[in-house]
User: What shape does this take?
Amino acid sequence: MNQQPVWKRVLLKLSGEALMGDLSYGIDPARLRAVAAEISHVVDGGNELAIVVGGGNIFRGISGASQGIDRATADYMGMLATVMNSMALQDALRKVAVDCRVQSAIAMQQICEPYIRGRAIRHLEKGRVVIFAGGTGNPFFSTDTASALRALEIGAEVLLMAKKKYDGVYDDDPETNPNAEMIEEITHREALERGLRVMDSTALSLCMDNGLPILVFNMSVPENIRRVLKGERIGTRVTPEADEREES
Assistant: This one.
């Protein structure tokens, strides 16, 4: 297997649940340290890495709205949860000697930088990890959409969707169908037409319209990020067009 990264600049989307470990909510310190250690190996391997972290382990906007909170207010609360997760991840990364910056789409000057595209790119060029917090800064948009948007803005070559539990994208819901099979490769358009759970439809359409490939894999398996970036065929690849797929 080629030991050089297949992609130089990448954006990693981490769900908030990926930081929970076996907890029912919040952040598991052991899991946080494991994620930071894996990211440090990625940076040491020569990748320029940006990260978007969800906030579902603390507060999810849609869930809050279903309990009677105004949807826009609930979404802003969810954005604040992503800032908390980003700060925790930054702290963990610094403890393993990874230079890191948090940039928030919502101004919080005392604790993190504002999101400025040119500054984010400069950080990446200097070998720093950049964590994008606060989603897009707008209600009604998920952190999936923020991931696609930021990946395109910084010129990322691929969007990595790290899952807590499943190995990739399945042809049916594996929670309810034990016979669901994982799909190794599919186009953006096919995923949209089949309603597969790659990411939300707004984010997936954005990736499709701009030809941004997506890799969906299981974050809980040790070294999986490194394996993906070295070109090993794990998880699911979502590609712009069928004729651009690589041979297995």
